[in-house]
Each structure stands twice: as C-alpha cells, then as structure tokens.
Specification:
heterodimer; A: mainly alpha; two-stranded antiparallel sheet; 24 helices; 2 strands; 77% helix; 1% strand; B: mainly alpha
Chain lengths: 551, 233
C-alpha cells in the first residue's frame, strides 16, 4: 500500500465528513444556532393545524412557499433573480461542491489505475478499490455534483420564501455532506460489516432531511422511512451474521471472515444451507434500501417529501449503492450455491417490483411520486440484469446505474424548480410548463425522455443491452425478459402521457433566466455522452462487470 | 467454570432473553414494556459475558459490559424519557406519572391471546429455520441459536402490530437484540469494529426515532401510528 493509494481510498469518504465538520464548526462559531432555533420552533408551533386539514393540496404541494401568515410575501419575486442575488451573499453554499469534486477526482485516479483489473487496498484490507468501486465512485461523484451545484439556488429560493433559516441551511449542509461520506464509505469498504454500518448510517442521516419541513406529510414520510429501512436492513445484518458464522466454520479467521475478497476466494467452502439462509436475508434487507419488493413502501413517500437535491441523491445513488452491495453478495452466493438460487430470487423480485411500479405509475397524480416509482422501475431492471448475470448483462446493468443516476438526478432537481414555480406537486395543476418556463420545461422533459430510454441517452444502450442479454440467456430468462419489457412499456406510456400533460398547454411566460440551471444541463450532457460513446470509461465498465461476474 | 454449569447458565440466560420478548406481547403499559426491554438487555449482556468467561476472551467481556450499558441502561433511558415527557404534558405538570392514553397500547391490532399464540408459532418457526445452523456446529451455544431468531421474529411482530410510536421503537430494538444474540451464539459476536459501528448506528436510530416521535405528536396530536395515512396512492 502506497501513501497515494491510501489517500485516494480515504479521501472520498473523509472529505465530505471534514466538510460536514467544517459546516458544523462555522455554524457554532457564528452562533447561528441559538438565534435560528427558536425562530423555527415558533414558526412550526404557530402554524395553524386546521388550515392544513382544510387545504391539504396546498400543504402537500407547497414545499418552498408555505403560507407563513401575514409576514410572508404573497407573490415571490422571479426565482432566478432571487437566485442570482442570493448566491453572492451565501458563498458557504458553494463550499459543498468541494466534496463531489474530490470524489470525482479520486474516482478518476483510481479508475486510471485500475483498468488492468486488479485491486488496491489500504489499512490492512479494510478499504479496497477495484474497477467496480471506481465506477460507483464516479457515479456517486457525478450525481452528487449535480445535486450540490443545484443546492445553492434551491436554498436561495427557500430563504427568499422564508422557509429556510440559518439553522435549517446549516443542518441541511451538514447532513448532506455526512450522507455523501457514508455512501462513499459503503462503496470503498471491503469489509461487509462496515458496508452494513455505512448503509444504515445513510438512513439515520437522511431521516431529518426527509422530514425537514415538519408538516404532517413529511413527518409521516420520515417515520416510515426510518422504521421500514432500519427494520429491513436489520435483516441484511442478520444475513451478514449468518454468513460470518458460515465463514468461521469454514476455517476463515475472525479478522478476514467478513472480508469480501477472502469470502469470494473461499466461497466454495461455505456451508450451503447456512449461506442460502444468509443470502436470502441479505438480498431482502439491502433490497429494502434499494426500493425492491417487499420492503419498498418507504420509497415514494420519502422521495416525494425530501428537498429536491436530496431526492436526487437518494434516488440517483443511494438506491444504486445498496444494489451494488447486492451485486457483491451475489458473487459469493453463486460461488457457494451455484447460479440458480440468486437467479430465481432476483428475477422474481425484479418482476414483482416492476409490476408494482408500472401499476402505480398508471394511477399517479403527483410528479415527485411519479419519479419515485420510475426509480423503482429502473432499480428492478438492474436487479434483472444481476439475475441474468452474463458479462453483457452486468456491464449493461452498471451502465444503467450511471445513466439512471444522472437522468434521475436531473429530473428530481428540475422537479424541485417546478414545485417552487407552481407551488404544487400535482400533475394536473402543472400545465404549460414549456410556455411558462422554456428552459426548465425542456430540461425536465429531456430528463424524462432520457428515463424513458430514448437515444442518445445512455439508458437506451443499457436497456437494449439488458434485453439482448436476457433473450440470449435461455428460455426461462427469455420469458422473464419479455414480461419485463411489456411492463416497461406500460410504465413508458404512463410516464410519457403525464409528462406531456405537464409540459404542454398555454401559460404566461415567466421571463426566466436560465443561468442557475447549468448543473442540470451538465447532467443531461453527461448522460448523453456516455450513451453515444463510453470512450475511456468503456474499459472500466468491462473491468467492473468482470469483478462481479460468476467465478 | 465447568462445561455443565456453563451450559445451564447459558440456557437460563437465553430462556430469560426469550421470555422477556414474549412478555412484551402480553403487557400493554409502555412503561412495563420498556422495563422488560431493559431486562432483556441484561440477559443479552449475560449471554455475552458467559461466552467470554467460557472462552477466556477479555475482549468479549468488555463488549458484554458495553452491550449491558447500552441496551439495559442508555436505550431504555432514552425511551423512558420520551414517554415521561408525553405523560407529563398530558397530566399538566412535570413528573406526573398518572394514566394517559399515550402511555398505554389501548387497542393493539392483535389481542393478547392471539399475540401469545403467534409468539409460540414464531418460536417453532425459528427452531425449524435454524436447524441447518445448529447442525453445522452443534455446541451448547449454537443449540441456543434459535432463541435469537425467535426474538427477531417476535420483534418484527411487535413492530407491525403495535400502534404507539414508542412501542414500535421497542419492537425495532427487540429485533436488534435478537440479531445481536444470534451473532454471539453463532460466532461469539462480530469483529469489534463492526460491533462498535452497529451499536452506534442503533443508538443514532433510536435518537432519531425519539425526535421523530416528538414531531409526530406535534403534527398529529397523538403517537398513534395508525393516524399516519396522508401519504398513499
């Protein structure tokens, strides 16, 4: 282990935590806490409870511009004007972009180092990077960059609307940075126990982000999120414990019995019955975090209530990080049990999730929930790719993780803008978005087009790859793939008609200035770029797929 | 410690561990449920302590003490504090311990008799599921392993059938106790760094849930989770 390797492995997890600590310290140093806290409390207490009952639509919809009594400005000024004037006054919001930049840099350096298919490790094997790690870090960094670069405009508008105080902004930055750090730790950790700790930490950290508005709906979403995810992922820990037991009985020493490379190398010695029980629990548990059936119920609630940049991170990468954990466990399971077991389990879960998501998309009337169900749809496609398990399917699945992260990150950030512009998250009340705000409307529309799987966006290539691999894999999986494609078509129709309803129609032009939308343009361009040519990423993708191929 | 005495003491601790979970199903006062949870923490610490003494591992004994402090002391204290604040508020004075509907599971979704029968069925299920686990390495510790799984299942049952927010938190903690017991009985606990991380996560999760309980009460006027039904499709 060289010093440089240790640095590249440590920095992605450590830098966000340092930035979080920095926000914490400056928050205390400026004594914003005692001043800000009572203001929030008072505002929450004085909010009339009956008004919420009388007008549920307003409360559910208006995240950023809730009715704040007489003091609130009834007509918020043009959002971009506010954004540009506010941005200058809050340079601290931009400090958050530092950590995605560091993550991307480290990922690129690790990737350049790792295209030969080897791996590096540090701290006696605790942190480890192979091609899959580098790929996931790149995705986390890219989506985090979009989310963190969109955050200043989001926070500026919240400040202008009076719904953000110094205390809530401070807390927002601190939690988002800790969230990023935990996700990166989950990606670079070689120890399956530490992986679990990091993924559970993301639940704890994001709970207050989901419930940050303290309205009835957001408190309910936060409660469901913490209870379902913690209980679900506790199953994954039970599975990890059982695997540890099997590994100890197979003669692996205590220090290495949860080490992923060691387990992969000696998986054939694990007791099949115990491993089977353990792997089922692990897939069920991490499946809860990845939004797969049967413990998916938290997902649409949490995604629709969280602030837009946080939804982007949760949907774009948190689900993918949990799925990457499943991909790693699948290698162990296949070596110990043969391919059939995880194939049936993952294919079944993928089809059920896809059917549920497609069915609920048909009846959807809220665009943030619509995007959340679309995330479930895409996660089940990646689970299907994992079930197929051929090199093509795995490469396509990993490409799908990247494409979905970028497109969904953009779509959620844009949906936050729409929410601020219209004050509602009901699809039926948003009409004529293209006429009112052409740039925002076009970006949201293009992001949904990307999610629908149109070229040139990379989801086209990855969905095609998954379908091809599925039909090539044999009769049983061919039928599963055909059924999946039919369900994707249903979801496609639902998503397309609803988005068209939002975008088209007459409306007053708002005279937007699109300057604050550049992160979204960047996200879509990246998504299109890897769809047209993977370029230098192609080798990395092949190597990453090889890491999780069946031994 | 002789082999026979170790086995007997271990079985006793495991019995107390399972019994505490079953009695949680029987009681309705949240204060009593929290007390039972603390007792279960003591039993869990005893299991770890016995294993540590038997294998002469000082690290495990230290972990046992840590587990005892966390699960029999700190976590019950946190829940009790939240409970006391609700009761006091309802009774109009600090330190009031009178009856209030917040302190009781007034209408659990499943009645007591059915709950106890379900607990019996779940325990049988745990023994059936754990057979390959015991067969892999039949020692006194792994023979008691189904107890851990039974508590996991009972914890899940409490989680889905109780309506008070704090009772759900206890359900989540029972589930977690069960997993920790399984880890101890199967492999004398997970490595220390993982154990520390897991304990820290559980503590944070309970703190978050405690704060959220207060917010649920502020927003809905009750901690009855059945009222949380505004988000749906």
């Amino acid at each position: 282990m060289t010093a440089a390797t240790a640095l590249f492995l440590t920095a992605p997890a450590a830098v966000p935590l340092v930035v979080a600590a920095g926000y914490a310290l400056t928050g205390f140093a400026r004594r914003e806490l005692p001043r800000g806290l009572p203001t929030v409390r008072r505002a929450e207490r004085s909010r009339p409870q009956h008004a919420e009952k009388a007008a549920p639509v307003t409360v559910q919809g208006a995240t950023s511009i809730p009715p704040r009594g007489k003091g609130a400005d009834p007509s918020p000024p043009g959002e971009s004007a506010v954004a540009s004037s506010e941005r200058a006054r809050h340079p601290s919001d931009w400090a958050a972009v530092a950590s995605p930049t560091v993550i991307l840099t480290c990922a690129a350096l690790l990737a350049a180092d790792r295209v030969d298919g080897g791996s590096v490790s540090a701290y006696s094997g605790l942190l480890r990077a192979d091609a899959l790690t580098a790929w996931m870090l790149l995705v986390v960094g890219a989506v985090a960059f979009i989310a963190c670069a969109s955050a200043p405009a989001h926070l500026a508008a919240e400040r202008a609307a009076g719904s953000a105080t110094a205390w809530t902004v401070w807390r927002y930055h601190m939690l988002v940075q800790t969230f990023l750090g935990a996700m990166c730790l989950a990606v670079v950790s070689a120890n399956l126990g530490v992986l679990w700790v990091a993924i559970e930490a993301t639940t704890v950290v994001t709970a207050f982000l989901v419930g940050h508005r303290r309205t009835r709906t957001s408190v309910e979403a936060a409660w469901k999120y913490v209870v379902i995810c913690s209980a679900g992922i506790a199953l994954a820990f039970l599975g990890t414990v059982l695997l540890y037991y099997a590994a100890r009985q197979a003669g692996i020493s205590e220090a290495w019995a949860l080490d992923w490379p060691t387990l992969v190398a000696r998986a054939d010695r694990l007791d099949p019955a115990v491993t089977r029980l353990g792997i089922s629990l692990v897939i069920l548990g991490y499946g809860a975090k990845a939004g797969l059936v049967p413990l998916h119920a938290w997902l649409p609630d949490a995604h629709s209530q969280a602030p837009a940049p946080v939804s982007a991170l949760m949907s774009g990468v948190l689900l993918a990080v949990a799925l990457a954990a499943i991909l790693r466990y699948r290698v162990i399971a296949d070596a110990a049990l043969g391919a059939g077991f995880t194939r049936v389990l993952l294919a079944g879960i993928a089809l059920l999730t896809l059917a549920l998501a497609a069915g609920l998309l048909l009846a959807q009337r809220d665009y943030k929930r619509m995007l959340a169900y679309s995330s479930m749809e895409h996660m089940s496609l990646i689970a299907l790719a994992a079930a197929i398990g051929s090199p093509l399917a795995l490469a396509a699945g990993l490409l799908h993780i990247a494409g979905h992260g970028l497109a969904k990150g953009t779509a959620f950030c844009a949906s936050g803008r729409i929410l601020r512009l219209r004050g509602t998250s009901k699809i039926g009340r948003v009409r004529g978005l293209l006429a009112q705000s052409p740039w925002l409307g076009a970006l949201f529309g293009l992001a949904v087009v990307a999610l629908l799987g149109f070229p040139p966006f990379s989801l086209f290539a990855s969905e095609l790859g998954i379908a091809r691999a599925g039909f090539a894999a044999g009769a049983g999986l061919g039928w599963v793939t055909a059924a999946a494609l039919l369900l994707v078509l249903i979801a496609f129709a639902a998503l397309a008609t609803r988005t068209a309803r939002m975008l088209l129609g007459p409306a007053e032009p708002s005279g937007e200035s699109p300057s604050a939308l550049w992160p979204l343009v960047l996200g879509l361009m990246a998504c299109a770029a890897i769809g047209i040519a993977t370029g230098p990423l192609g080798d990395l993708l092949t190597q990453a797929a090889a890491v999780i191929e069946r031994p | 410690m002789s082999e026979g005495l170790f086995t007997q003491l271990l079985d006793l601790a495991c019995g107390a561990f399972l019994l505490a979970a079953v009695v949680v199903l029987w009681r309705r006062e949240l204060a009593a449920i929290v007390r039972l949870f603390a007792l279960q923490g003591v039993a869990l610490a005893a299991i770890a302590l016995l294993l540590g003494l038997h294998e002469n591992r000082w690290g495990l004994i230290v972990v046992a003490v840590g587990i005892g402090v966390l699960r029999a002391g700190l976590l019950p204290y946190l829940i009790r504090r939240a409970l006391r604040s609700f009761v006091a508020e309802r009774d109009g004075g600090p330190g009031g311990h009178g009856w209030s509907e917040e302190a009781r599971e007034t209408q659990p979704l499943v009645n007591v008799a059915a709950s106890l029968l379900t607990a019996a069925a779940l325990t049988l299920l745990a023994y059936a599921v754990a057979r390959p686990l015991v067969e892999l390495d039949p020692t006194p510790a792994t023979r008691a392993l189904p107890v851990g799984l039974a508590v996991v299942l009972i914890g899940f049952f409490v989680l889905v059938t109780r309506r008070r927010a704090l009772a759900q938190v206890v359900g989540f903690l029972l589930l977690d106790n069960g997993i920790t017991a399984t880890a101890f009985l199967a492999a004398s606990g997970v490595p220390l760094i993982v154990e520390l991380g897991v304990s820290f996560d559980v503590l944070l999760a309970v703190l978050v849930l405690q704060v959220l309980t207060v917010r649920v009460r502020e927003a809905f006027g009750t901690t009855d989770i059945d009222d949380l039904r505004e988000l749906h499709d």
